[in-house]
Structure formats: structure tokens, C-alpha cells
Design a protein that fits this description.
2 domains, five-stranded parallel sheet
Length: about 240
């Protein structure tokens, strides 16, 4: 299982800004930079060193072998693949995050530093990330794009503004048991843009939900819905041209 777990999060679990897919370059194993994969010591500096080494080389893949890693927020750089191997778990201690400039629903504002992300990035992708058993609250919801194999299992996101979950330009996406206890008027719980083959399963809409799943026009046919309980939503799905980003 590759995952990270955390509760009572501030604004974003995962936020990538201005990225395109990238899949080339040498491999930088975080263990080679001093990370401990037994959870016995923070790996934040070792991960940062591996990322900076990739940056100095003009790009590459930062690789997490199997094991348990304790880390603070991870700042990405351009021309990078962050690859989390099967059996690797990233754990983020439940501490209040510092603030930085970010974007919520198209508005520049102060937001908490994302756990994994950055700004003005190019050619970045995250592969093999699995997020499990998280209850999170914050101003904005979970945002991710240009991911490969992202899995969310039993994740509850309670956002003050915007959709609880927003994912775009991603493949092999699996949303299993995603929910919110704080549905917002005129906002879908889940918004997917250009995520062909995505699976939404085992998820539930609570009373007061307007739309559970929103996608752009013509994309609903490429999303599989399996075993969801969405009867409490005004409408289970919609195709909408609204830009929620």
C-alpha cells in the first residue's frame, strides 16, 4: 500500500499548480539522501535534498521505496516525477501548516501550504499515490492534477468553499469511499476534468448534497460509477461547463 494519512487538515491535501506530464531523467532514491523508511525519524530534509538533486540535474524521478516515511510538506520543482512505490507510506504529522499565496476557485488568496505541491511548475507528475483513512477540514478541498494511479480510500473532505474533491488531467484514478459532511450549495462534492477511465465507488451523498459528481460536457461516459449511495443528492451526476479551478 502506498499512502499518506492525516486528520484535521488545513486547506489542501494535494495541490499541483501549472504542471504537465513528465516521465524522463535519472532516478534519485530518497534512501540515498538519508531518509529512514522505518518511520523512526523525519525524512523531510532527505526528501528535499533528493528533489534538489533532481533539479540540479535538470530533472528526474524522486523515488520512494517501500517503507514508512514521516515528513513535512513536500515542495516540488519543475521537470520532476514523484514516484511512490507499492508498500511505501508517507505520514504527515497533524500540525498547522504555514500559509502561502494560492488560488481557490480562480481567486488568488492566502492558503495553507499544500502537503505535496508547488507553484509555477512545469513537467511534473506524481505516480502511485494512495491516500487512505483521512478526515480533513479546511478552506478549500483536495486538489490534484497530472497524477497517475491516484487512489483515495475512505477520505472525507469538509471544505469551506468549492468542491470537496477536484482532480483533472489524471489517469488510473480510483475514488473509493469519498465523502463530505459539509455539502455546499451549488457546488459538487466531486469535480473531475479530463480523467478518462476514472472510477467512483463505494461513496455516499449526505442530506443537503446538491450534485455529487460533476464533469465537463461529454465526459460522464468515461467515468465508472460502482456501488455508490447517492440517493440523498438532488442529482447524482451532471455534465457542466463551469470552471471550478
Amino acid at each position: 500500500m502506498n499512502a499518506f494519512s492525516r486528520s484535521r487538515l488545513l486547506p489542501a491535501l494535494l495541490l499541483l499548480t501549472g504542471v504537465n506530464a513528465w516521465s524522463a531523467g535519472p532516478v534519485f532514491n530518497v534512501l540515498d539522501y538519508g531518509a529512514r523508511n522505518d518511520g523512526s525519524a523525519p525524512a523531510t530534509e532527505a526528501i528535499r535534498s533528493a528533489i534538489q538533486a533532481a533539479k540540479a540535474a535538470g530533472g528526474g524521478t524522486v523515488y520512494f521505496p517501500g517503507g514508512n516515511y514521516v515528513t513535512g510538506s513536500i515542495a516540488l520543482v519543475s521537470n520532476l516525477v514523484l514516484h511512490i512505490d507499492a508498500g511505501a507510506t508517507l505520514r504527515f504529522p497533524a500540525t498547522r501548516l504555514p500559509y502561502t499565496w494560492g488560488r481557490i476557485q480562480g481567486i488568488e488568496c492566502l492558503t495553507a501550504v499544500p502537503l505535496i505541491g508547488g507553484r509555477d511548475l512545469e513537467n511534473v507528475s506524481i505516480t502511485g499515490l494512495r491516500i487512505s483513512n483521512v478526515v480533513a477540514s479546511g478552506m478549500g478541498g483536495l486538489k490534484a492534477y497530472n497524477t497517475v494511479g491516484l487512489e483515495l480510500h475512505n477520505v472525507q473532505m469538509n471544505a469551506d468553499v468549492g468542491p470537496a474533491f477536484q482532480v483533472r488531467d489524471s489517469t488510473d484514478l480510483d475514488l473509493d469511499g469519498v465523502s463530505t459532511r459539509k455539502p455546499l450549495p451549488a457546488m459538487p462534492v466531486v469535480r473531475l476534468d479530463r480523467c478518462p477511465g476514472a472510477i467512483v465507488r463505494g461513496s455516499r451523498a449526505v442530506a443537503g448534497t446538491g450534485t455529487f459528481l460533476s464533469v465537463p460536457q461529454g465526459e460522464l461516459k468515461s467515468v465508472a460509477l460502482e456501488g455508490n449511495a447517492l440517493g440523498s443528492a438532488r442529482q447524482a451526476t451532471e455534465e457542466s461547463v463551469t470552471n471550478f479551478w
